[in-house]
Amino acid sequence: MDKLSKIYIAGHRGLVGSATLRSLKKEGYSNFLLKTHKELDLQVQRNVENFFKKGKPDYVFLAAARVGGILANNTYPADFIYNNLVIQVNVIHAAYKYGVKKLLFLGSSCIYPKYAPQPMKEEYLLTGLLEPTNEPYAVAKIAGIKMCQSYNRQYRTNFISVMPTNLYGPYDNFDLENSHVLPALIRKFHLARLLKDKRYEEIKRDVERFSEGFNLSLDLNLILEKSGITSEYVKLWGSGTPRREFLHVDDLADACVFLMNHYDSGEIINIGTGRDVTIKELAELIKEIVGFDGEIVWDKTKPDGMVRKLLDISKLKSLGWTPKISLRDGIKQTYEWYVKFSGNL
């Protein structure tokens, strides 16, 4: 990409898209095509094709997707497979049809088999059964990968697919029912600390900002207790023993810009840190950073998901890229952003 290239970021207001936009601006890029969901519904094929026909982007970062944790995936499996498939099909086909020079598709580490050897190499794709708790989402992402590879074969496009590990950072989803584990933990411990300190006005502002579905006419203690949040303890799903890898979204964005400029293979490539922690270790770290001095209770009747998910990033490292943000520093920065964004300064 040169600095004047016309760049479209699908999902530029989301976690990954906003970080990609920040990274590109930092690198001196300034010619962006940006549309909100209200301005361009990526699930409407006609609208997507009209946008590409008129805008003619040179490069596309496909970061728009429906995402969520175990609870969301279990509750809305049809939405996860439908929404993601439709978005991918519309954007990838339009990119081919209207001559995009290069497209980067954001996949996910959940594409790998449930019992894949650890750390997971790119060649493990489609070598076994998927984790049932997020299978519809994973199937949609695999379809996106195969669509990019198929268009490369048939039409000689330059569409690349990257597989990020678990992400976190500013503009993440902090909804207690639909978010991934790390932002959910940040919010749970933060609300528990506010509850213990009887800072009810700050709790109300937080709930109003991040949880539209909550009925504020109900007692706040009852509202939070339903999500496992009390002044004395925080209840978390599972046993705490599964191991997960976490990558700050700014590192991911930096890697995506790097790969857009230096990687032209249709073969998928992992993006991660190469290090993992148990969910229990993660919870203890977040509890410490947030400053909650209560207990952690584990609800072992709830699912754990995969026992371990760690990506092999040797392929990416061989190209000259490594992550820069430590887990502690990244969580601290994300928590500071969350507190400021929720209005609890």
Radius of gyration computed on alpha carbons:
20 Å
Shape: globular
Order of strands side by side in the largest beta sheet?
Answer: 2-1-3-4-5-10
User: How many helical stretches?
Assistant: 12
Query: How much of the sequence is in beta strands?
Result: 5-15%
Low-confidence segments, given as residue ranges, are none
Distance between the termini: 40 Å
Order of helices and strands: EHEHEHHEHEEHHHEEEHEEHEEHH
Overall pLDDT level: 93
What is the number of strand segments? 13
What does this structure look like?
- With 345 residues, the protein is α/β, with parallel strands linked by helices.
- The longest helix is centred in the N-terminal third of the chain and has 21 residues, at 77-97.
- The protein has twelve helices and 13 strands.
- 46% of the residues are buried.
- Strand 4 (102-106), helix 5 (135-155) and strand 5 (159-164) form a beta-alpha-beta unit.
- The two termini are 40 Å apart.
- The strands form four sheets. A six-stranded parallel beta sheet has the order 2-1-3-4-5-10, with helices on both faces. Strands 11-8-13 form a three-stranded mixed beta sheet. A two-stranded parallel ribbon has the order 6-9.
- Helix 1 packs across helix 9 (249-262), helix 4 (77-97) runs parallel beside helix 5 (135-155) and helix 10 packs across helix 12 (327-342).
- The chain is globular and about 60 Å long.
